[in-house]
Amino acid sequence: MAMDQELVKAVTTDNNFRVLLLNGQSVVETARLSHHLTKTTTTVLGRGLLATLLLASSVLKGTEGLTVRLNGQGPVGGMLIDADAHGTVKGYLQHGQVELPLLANGDVDVASAVGTDGFLEVLKTQGNLDPYTSTVPLVTGQIGSDFAYYLAKSEQINSAVGVSVVLDEHGQVKTAGGYLIQTLPDADNTAIAALEERLPTLPSIATMLTTATDPVKLAAMLLPDEPVKVLSQEQVAFACDCSKAQFAQSLAGLSSSELRQLITEDHGAEVVCHFCGARYQFSATELQQILAEKGKL
Fold first, then answer.
1. In CATH, which of 1.10.490.110, 3.40.50.300, 3.90.1280.10, 3.30.1120.10 is domain 244-296?
2. Is the model's pTM score more than 0.90?
3. Which Pfam families does the protein's record reference (predicted)?
4. Among the four residues 125, 150, 234, 295, which has the most C-beta atoms within 10 Å?
């Protein structure tokens, strides 16, 4: 299993904490290339993708899925991300070409890019049940702490969420990862207090991944006094299920006059998937076929 695209679920052996550890370098790099992102937007969307993968893995099962909408009214605009229970994620930013000056310490100014005057919304699809939607206000715009706030308010689970993306001098993703630590029902208060004191003193998860690429080893760095038992390890991926056939159905939803205009004036159409940037070309002949099928309905 490639360590740059791995998610590990574990529990501490004393049953104090549930731990999810994620190395998502390939996920974020694929998103960067798919959307031609800047350093700023690679970091912003990357954090969103990582946090959504952690959230999905913690609350979904089977065929369930979730959609995350995040908008803090910052210059990158809104973020839309889909994930399933099996480590697959896709998403995009409204303004993927935004680039902001770096902070004095050289970090990307995520909070300014995202903004804080907005919301985080999670919609969960649960098979034949009605979708469940919950919305919380953004608290920092740093994304990780915003997801932790969502879990505390909407899922009633006390959690620590850390997500981080480190780029090289060329803007490529060097490391990217995250963790989600949740207290179990009978967790010891002393252990909780010790964890709360330790987490703010640690380097970013992406920085730790430069020395410990195995997520299991990260557990020892995050929880040195809490041995962990690994429950599962799975691959994660940035992947889209779009297809030309799906977009043909979307084009069939246009009016006949709109389709004729595309045929006579544009001599075809190009459709772009927002989630992955894939481009699908439809010739005038293909549009004629879609128009003819509409006439049979």
1. 3.90.1280.10
2. yes
3. HSP33
4. 150
